[in-house]
Amino acid sequence: MKRRWKPFAQPRADFAFAGAALKKNWARLHRGDCERFPDAAPLQEAWRAFHRGDFQLACEQGLALGAEGEAVAGKAQFIYATHLEPDKKTRLALFEQAARRAEAARKARPDDAALHYLFACCMGRHSQSKSVLEALAAGTAGRIRKALERALELAPRHAEAHIAMGAWHSEVIDKAGALVGSLTYGASAPEALNHYRKALSLFPESAIVRVEYAAGLTRMDSSREEEARTLLEQAAKLAPADAAEALDVELARSRLEAL
Fold this sequence. Notes:
14 helices, single chain, globular, 259 residues, mainly alpha
């Protein structure tokens, strides 16, 4: 029997977006990823499943549509693996699988910013299971950066890609050191901050922008803990627009408790 994903446990009534409600709320729901409203009814249904927290159904419905549905399928799998999957081995397998699919889909749809972004995010999450030297030597950091650069070239207002690029710079600096990170990989703290700030300006309603911004600040400079705390406090008070954002708010609250 096929393994079922752990369900999203919060109430879903506010995130149903039945009928015309999906299109009416689309701009707010997709402010972070600049996804266009789909004309095809099956793709609309997949996005409805995603927004109400039926992540496995959203993934399955997206996969049934081929490369056209990979954006919703990959995003559903990424969100589920990030927030809900309890088993580390399974989580890493989900990231790896989604990265492989996104890699294939972006070759078929090279002008789809979402696919470059998803490839970068899933590759990044999976590479965290490896040692720093292994990941850097394999060229993973370079591939992730190129994918994010392409996503931002196609969609300059893609807030989630900006936050991912900020995370890329901050993580390379954290793992390789500021000097090696700069000379070898082109990572820099000013660039990280530029992308974090841009993401926040584009998507001020987002909890995950603040959560990642806070994480990046403390990775690069431990003296900025109070600034990071303020960002987390702001994130924890935001009203989520869908299930994915509800999980982001929950993450902000858990990180505040851990401080």
